[in-house]
């Protein structure tokens, strides 16, 4: 009887082992299939088959903060995003690439490429990985984040952030208006290189938050020149004409700030009343969630002191 039991037990062990191996193989195959699963994204240029769970993303113009906020892994990124103070830590391992660095992009083995509609070599890039482009300003800054969410198969996460951010920004706007007055005006200006600019309501630098979400007032003179183009170049002499009761001044570290030594600037009421709030120019040109969160805190602290 013992002689019969041993071969039977050995056969049972072999069967269990084989079943276990088969299950492991099935799990590996399922995992592989999941990694290779695709969804259809309705892009500006038509449907594009993109990975349902992209693992290696290349960003060729903006949107890095959108992808990062949704948990995306960026392996290649353009220089402006790489140098943004709000994004630098999160992009420290990403390679700097341009739309002409085709060989470098191939080496990064991306499974998704994202950029603006103005990038070059779209056809060649599409041969490397699914490539999706967006026209800057075609949709508002919050809708843009939801579009990135759809692309990354994370639409619900994107919508949740948008709803929460809108609520917080609107609440902060109410507090600010209660403090500075319903009729107070705010200008957003920038010192870049040797140039000075004033901005409309959709040109980053906090403009979307101030004018769209918080509904603070833009000076009429700024509306006249910046509503359509989004920005307007100023000379020092006419600077006072475009200054609001409060000024947000986006200033780059290497900008020419000699205008601040002129009488025209010093005599602006906002300047004389210490109502100029200086924002770091580097990285201010983005409207992604990470940058927007930083700008919202800056604006709350500047106006409310908390």
From TrEMBL:
Give the family this protein belongs to, as stated in its UniProt record: Belongs to the bacterial solute-binding protein 8 family.
What name appears for this protein in its UniProt entry?
Answer: Iron-hydroxamate ABC transporter substrate-binding protein
Q: Which classification does the entry list for the species?
A: Bacteria, Bacillati, Bacillota, Bacilli, Bacillales
Q: How does it sit in the membrane?
A: Lipid-anchor
A Gene Ontology biological process in which this protein takes part is:
iron coordination entity transport
Span of the signal peptide: 1-24
Q: Where is it found, in Gene Ontology cellular component terms? A: outer membrane-bounded periplasmic space; plasma membrane
Where does it live in the cell?
Answer: Cell membrane
> Gene3D superfamilies from the entry?
Nitrogenase molybdenum iron protein domain (3.40.50.1980)
Which species is the source of this protein? Lysinibacillus telephonicus
Show the Pfam families listed in the entry. Answer: Peripla_BP_2 (PF01497)
Identify the main location: membrane
Task: Note whether Transport occurs among the keywords.
Answer: yes
Domain of life per record: Bacteria
Residues forming the Fe/B12 periplasmic-binding domain are 56-306
- List the keywords (alphabetical): Signal, Transport
